[in-house]
Design a protein that fits this description.
The protein is mainly α and 157 residues long. It has one domain: AhpD-like, CATH 1.20.1290.10. Helix 1 runs antiparallel to helix 7. The longest helix is centred in the C-terminal third of the chain and has 24 residues. It is globular and about 45 Å long.
Length: 157
């Protein structure tokens, strides 16, 4: 399977992705825990059906030491006992923000308040930015049908 468009060879998409990657660097350098960042990226990618990003972020998380049990349970985080309350709050915010079009009110006050119990304002800013960025990456990859399965951890530096 080939992508509809080569995102890396096309000058417009390559430049746009470069800016998304730069914004992502700000988030990755933030105080939001790295494990939480990967869980958020995985969950949004699962919801959006982005195989490329799901492949990438599960492999990167495993490379960083995340357990296979936690990785296998991200989609069922509500029933799983392996996530902290803070991670659960981040996953709830991720789901609501990713499914924003499905909910008349967008993100609920309860989901926001729960996240705010666990994260300071800078971390919340990073979390909101991360959710927006991974959704943008997911949409680009889904639209062009970017194939999944061949990603190698660290492949993009």
């Amino acid at each position: 399977m080939d992508a509809r468009l080569n995102l890396f060879d096309n000058p417009v998409t390559a430049k746009a992705l470069k800016h998304l990657v730069s914004a992502s660097k700000v988030v990755s350098d933030s105080a939001l825990p790295a494990a939480t960042q990967e869980l958020v990226k995985i969950r949004a990618s699962q919801i959006n059906g982005c195989g490329f990003c799901t492949d990438m972020h599960t492999k990167d998380a495993a490379q960083a030491g995340e357990s296979s049990v936690r990785l296998n349970l991200v989609a069922a985080w509500r029933e799983a006992t392996v996530f902290t309350d803070a991670e659960r709050a981040a996953l709830e915010l991720t789901e609501q923000a990713t499914r924003i079009a499905d909910a008349a009110g967008g993100v609920t006050d309860d989901a926001w308040a729960n996240a705010a119990k666990h994260y300071d304002e800078d971390q919340l800013g990073a979390l909101v930015s991360l959710i927006a960025l991974i959704n943008a990456f997911n949409r680009v990859n889904v639209v062009v049908r970017q194939p999944a399965g061949d990603y190698r951890p660290g492949q993009f530096g």
